[in-house]
Amino acid sequence: MNTDHSATVRREFQHLFSPFQIGRREVKNRIVSTAHAPGFDSGLLNKRHVDYLERKAAGGAGLIMAFGSASVYKYSSASYGSVSLWDPENEQLLEDLADKVHAHGGLIMSQATHMGRRGDSSISGRPLQAPSAISEGIHRETPHVLRIDEIPPIIDAFADAAARLERCGWDGIEITSFSGHLIEQFWSPAINKRTDRYGGDLTGRMRFSEEVIEAVAEAVSDDFIIGFRMTGDPVTDDLGLDQDDMLEIAKRLDRLGHIDLFHISGGNAATYAAQSAVVPGDTFARSTYNHAAHRMKENLSAPVLVAGRILDPEQAEDALVNDDCDLVGMTRAIIADPELPQKTMEGELSQIRPCNACTEGCIGRLYMGMPIICTVNPAIGDSSLENFEPADYMRRILIVGGGPAGMEAARVAAARGHDVMIWERGDQLGGQMTAAVTAPERPHYGRHIEWLKRELERLNVDVQLKTTMTPDSLIELDPDKVVLATGSYPDILAAAGDVTTRCVTDIAILDQAVSIEKGDRVMVYDREGKFRGASIANFAATAGASQVELVTPLWSVCEDLDAMQKPELYRLLAENQVVLSPNQQLAGQKDGHLLLNDVWSGNERLVDEADLVVFVGYQTAEDALYEQVKQADPQLDVQMIGDAIAPRRLSDAISEGVRIGNTL
Ligand SMILES: Cc1cc2nc3c(=O)[nH]c(=O)nc-3n(C[C@H](O)[C@H](O)[C@H](O)COP(=O)(O)O)c2cc1C
Ligand code: SF4
Asked: Which residues does UniProt call coiled coil (predicted)?
C-alpha cells in the first residue's frame, strides 16, 4: 500500500469513512451490508452463514445488517432458507456471530419480521397470516385472517426477538415492513380491510406497527439500536399507498421517539414488476431510491440509511455529500467484493471486483429456491475459493483462450506466483462476454471483464492476442502446464436443421457479424429459455425489424429465467410488440413457409417466411484442441475448464477458472 496515495483517497471519501452515531452506539464508517437472505439456513443459523457475515465485517463494512426476513414468530410461514429468531437454539451462534463482527470493529443488527401473506405455506406447513384474506400477487395463496386475539402474541414475538438479540450481545434490531411484509400489509388500505382497531383509517392501520415498536422499545435497554426498514417508493399503485403516504407513515413512527435508524429503499412484493424493483437490476437507475431517502432525511429526526444500486464508493460518497442519507447500503457491491471498504480505504479502487448488477447469482437464485452464489465472486458459493496458497514453485503456465474462465485461471495462477501466459485467437479478451455486454438491458455486465483485464495487467500476465495454438508453437513454448479455456461456439448447422432461410445466432448479431435490416421480419427461436432469447428479440425490434416473433418449445418465454430479470424483459417485449409463441417447435419449412408444430397437439402452423431466423441455445463445446495437445506431448499436464468442457453459465466459467488457477 502506498500511504500517501491512501491518505488522498481517504480524503476523497471522507464522508464515507467518518464515524457516525446510531442511537447510543458509534459505527466506524457509513458502509452497510443490508439485510439479505442467502438461503443458507432452515430456521437454524449455521456456521456457513456466520462465516459469510463475518467475512463482510473483516472486509471493513461498518454495519452488518444480518439475515433477511428473519422470522420472529413460530407460527408464521418463514421464508425459504431464513433464520428463526424465535428459536432459542440459535442463541449460541448468535453470540458467536456478534463476537466475531465486533472483533473486526463492526456493528451487527438483525432484521426481524413476520412476512404475513408473503410466502408459501408449503415451506413451514403453516397457513399464511394476514390482516385480510387477500392473497399476494406473487405467491397467490389465500392467507388466514388474523383474529384480534392472534395479534398480541405476534407483537410480543417481536419484543422477545429483540430481547434475545440484546442478550446475545447484538447491537440492534431492524424491524421490517419492507417489500410487502406483515407490517406493510396492515398499512395498506388495499390489503387491510379490517373493521376492528387494526384497520380503517391510517391511525387504525398503523396501530399494529406502533404497538410492535413500543413493545420492542420496552423489551430492550436504551443502548440497543432500534432500526426500522420500509419502502419510501412502493413503485406500484397496488398498495393504495404512494410516496407521500410512506412519508406520512415514517413521520408518525418517528414521532414515537424510539426509532434510531430508518432504512429506506423501494419496491414492493405486490406484483412481479414491483418485486423486481426491491433488488433493482441493471435497467434501473443507479442510486435508485436516493430520492425517497433524501425526502425522508429532510423530514425525520432519526438518521436514514438508503439501499438500492449503489455500486461504487464514489456513488456512496456522493449520496452522503448530497445529504440523501447518513448511511449507505452497498449490499450487492459487498457480495461481489467483501473487501470493498478496505480496498477503498487503502486507495486500491481499481482492484475492487465490481458487481455487474446481473441479479442472477444472488437474488435470482434465491427466488428459484437455491442458496445464493455470486456470478463474479465464486467464494460465496464455495469458501475454498476464498484464499489462495502461494505456489510451491513457479511454473510456466499456458492458458489457451481469453474468455472469463481463462482470464480467471490466469489471474489466480499469477497471484499465486506462476509465470502465466494467455493465448487468445481473437483480437480482444473476454470471449463470449464481448458479445453479451452489448445487450442493452445489461449496461454494467462488462465490468467484471474490465476488472479482469486490469488485474491481469497488474499481475504481469503475458497476453498474446490473435494467437492460435498449434502443436509446433506449443512444443516451442514448452510450458509446465496447459489449461484449455477455449469456450464454445454456436452450432448453426445443428440449429438450423432443414430451415433454409437466412439462419444466424444471437451472438452473430451482437458481434455485428450480421445486421438487422430495416423492415426485416425476424423469428427468434429460443430453446434455452433464459435471458438471451428475449433480449435478442428486443434488440431486433429496436434495430428496425418490422415484425419479431419469439418462438420457444418451452412452457413460456424466458421459462428458466428468475423472477427478478423477467419483468423488465417482458415489459420490453410488450413495448416492442414482439409476438410471443411458447409451446411451438420449429420443425422446418413447408410450401415456402416456416413450419411450427404445437408441442402438445402436434398441430402444424405455417408462418410467413422470415428474412432472418435467430437461433438461441445451440452452444457446442470447443474441445478439439485437447486431443491435439495430447498428441503433440502426451506427458503434458493439460486441463480443460468452462464451456470447453460443457457450455454453461458465466458463473460456472468464473468459478472453474478460479478453482483451476488455485490448483496449478
Ligand atoms: C440475495 C438477496 C436477498 C435479499 N433479501 C432481503 C431480505 O430478506 N430482506 C430485505 O429487507 N431485503 C433483502 N434484500 C434487499 C437488500 O437488502 C437491498 O435492499 C437490495 O439488494 C438493494 O441494495 P443493493 O443495490 O446495494 O444490493 C435482498 C437482496 C439480495 C441481493
Ligand atoms: S450475483 Fe450479480 S448482482 Fe448479485 S452480487 Fe454478484 S454480480 Fe452482483
From this structure: none
